[in-house]
Description:
Blueprint: H1 11-25, E1 35-43, E2 47-51, E3 58-61, E4 79-86, E5 92-94, H2 104-113, E6 116-125, E7 128-133, E8 136-141, E9 160-169, E10 174-178, H3 180-195, E11 203-212, E12 215-221, E13 224-229, E14 250-259, E15 264-268, H4 276-280, E16 289-298, E17 301-307, E18 310-315, E19 337-346, E20 351-357, E21 372-381, E22 384-390, E23 393-398, H5 410-413, E24 419-428, E25 433-437, H6 439-476
Parallel strand pairs: 13-15
Antiparallel strand pairs: 1-2, 1-4, 2-3, 4-5, 6-7, 6-9, 7-8, 9-10, 11-12, 11-14, 12-13, 14-15, 16-17, 16-19, 17-18, 19-20, 21-22, 21-24, 22-23, 24-25
Amino acid sequence: MSTDDDNPSKPGEEEDFAALLAETLKPTLFKVGQTVQGAIVLIGRDVVFVDIGGKGEATMDLTELQDETGQLTVEVGTTIEAVVVSTSGGVTLSHKLARSAASRRQLEDAYRAQLPVEGRVEKANKGGYEIRVGGQRAFCPISQIDTGFTSDPEVHVGKVYTFQIIEYKEDGKDLVISRRALIEEEERKKEGEVRSTIVPGADLPGRIASVQPYGAFVDLGGGIQGLLHVSEMGWSRVSDPTAVVQAGDSVTVRVLGVDDDKGKISLGMKQLQSDPWDAVGRSYASGQRLPGTVTRILEFGAFIELQPGIEALAHLSTFPPSGKRDGWKDAVTVGATVAVEILAVDFEKRRIGVAVIEKDSAPALSIEAGARLTGIVERHERYGVFVFLGPGSTGLLPNEETDTAYGTDLKQLFPLGSEIEVVVLEVDPENHRIRLSRKAIREAAEKDDARAYSKQQDKGQESSFGSMADKLREALHPTDK
């Protein structure tokens, strides 16, 4: 027969046994709101027992697992996901609170435990939305339906969202719920993960949060938004951002830049489309004539779209002077189709200069030194007169080349819009300068007159010498007649 002395207890073993006993008696720690998984071990008349890994089973109302006809949707051994709604007197679970509350008691449990419930947006009304949560009606203020401003309340009608109950009154008859609170909480969890993906050149999915006249703000997730500027929405000029995107639209954008100091993220959409300049840009050449559509009229000229994504500028200098300020604008109207002639193409800077022309007009003039042309007075400056010679060609007639006396009123002598004949003295294509002269016309005329007079004098002398020779011949040979 053994004695205590025969089997002495070791100090380490006694401590391990005490710890094990304490752990056995200690209740399993579950938190209200915690999502758990477990297997159904028993289905009773009103209650279902679920093994969630504790020292006992959690319970759930049988109705939680019945469909609309009252039929059970599970059996013993089925693994389900549920939410802990109470730990008082045992762990109580709810299966439907994760999707939609079905009773006032469950709604109250969800309110107290701050659990999400599912609801359908029935209609928009003054200040918010009427939401159907299970068999109950709830109200969601418009500011709580989303994280951004909702310009069109109807975009949410008919949608099924997850909400949080923020007010529970009159035994569940008066419910106020919020979707924004859940979105912001989820965004906080995702912020770090999302921010690591936002780098220049990355293509990311997003949702249009709001649309402004200058572009749209895109929700990239995690509470992070970037600006999609109107100029980056497409290769064609976009005047109204709402014609391209609407609040709530799902889009794919490219990150163009990230300014951490200012907290700004620049996004683009046109970069995900083919660049029209790469496809057909080099098919344009000087002298080419083609139709275009006037898209904008600014102080310095009119922009004309030759095809989607490719615009040309008809500078105000390419329009004939009208004699009145901004008179060139009368020749173009936004949206009108006009004929243009390409004057210059800069492929590196992606610029095309054109002149608006009449369909059957002569080609734009090629100005060369020595040419004698008729132009139209465009404007006056203290140092001379600018003369329009043709589309894209305006020359300067300096005061000293006007062939007038000092102090002459050039504005009166050469009125705006009047025709004037000039000679091209110098052409500087690189600096787009043309120097003209009227004095050269007079000097050329004087030279012509001098040459003509000289020729006439030479003929006169030849005539005189001829007469004297005849008389001498007659005197020497009188009988020759």
